[in-house]
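Q: what does this look like with phosphoenolpyruvate bound?
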Amino acid sequence: SDEYKMVSKKWKAKPTSIDLGDGILIKDGDMAIIAGPCSIESEEQIKSVIQHLKDNGITMMRGGVFKPRSSPYAFRGLGLEGLILWYNLAREAGIKIVTEVMQVSQIEEMYPYVDIYQVGARNTQNFNLLDELGKVDKAVMIKRGISGTIEELLQSAEYVFSGGNEKLILCERGIRTYERASRNTLDLNAVPILKAKSHLPVIVDPSHGMGIRAYVPQMALAGVMAGADGIIYETHQVPELAYSDGQQTLDFAQSALLADQIRKTFALR
Ligand code: PEP
Ligand code: MN
């Protein structure tokens, strides 16, 4: 098929490793843990999350400063100023930054402060954004589209890879189905299929995939056993007060337990 080629295993048999520096890698045969709030909210919140991550040996922090919200009246993020604040605190702590880029004009202004550009589920098929990220010398994590197929995710990845940026990560974050009992349907079928078809690392996001705090940990562990190379999840010091996605966000005790369980489950694989 010429639908995609360079991201396929036929093109490159050896799994792609993403090296973020300081010995922090995302790669096949390893288990990356990326945790943090849905949105970056304040200096106090950033400090509190960083301390939690450090206490639990987690070296990659997620958080949005440009937020794609369903309602224009919802909190839309602290923007570049928030990213710079976060960057200064994270660098000092040796923690890498994973954050969403929503449009082409943000790529350059975010560049000095980002370790992994996240392409959100609402932007998986923003082909102009993907083209521009193909020209950047920094890692990109592409989330599966809200109603996107596995093949469409790989084709989106092909845009970036064929544009010249091979530092790519795929993320299964749930798809919209007829089922409304959970926010999305986490499609764990995608994990072994993506791993078989592509040389790129695959990360699972059980927070957006499930959308219900109490059930996030078991879906994270299911993702580990499905063969994921990493898990990304939301955590916050007081989830009930989070500016976004509090209903699916773990508190620090739940997060500490989950990080430990992810490592133990991975060891069984
Ligand atoms: C997020 O990671 O907070 C987010 C908005 O994710 P998604 O694009 O998967 O909805
Ligand atoms: Mn979120």
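The mean pLDDT is 98. Strands lie at 18-19, 25-26, 32-36, 60-62, 96-100, 116-119, 139-143, 168-172, 202-204, 230-234.
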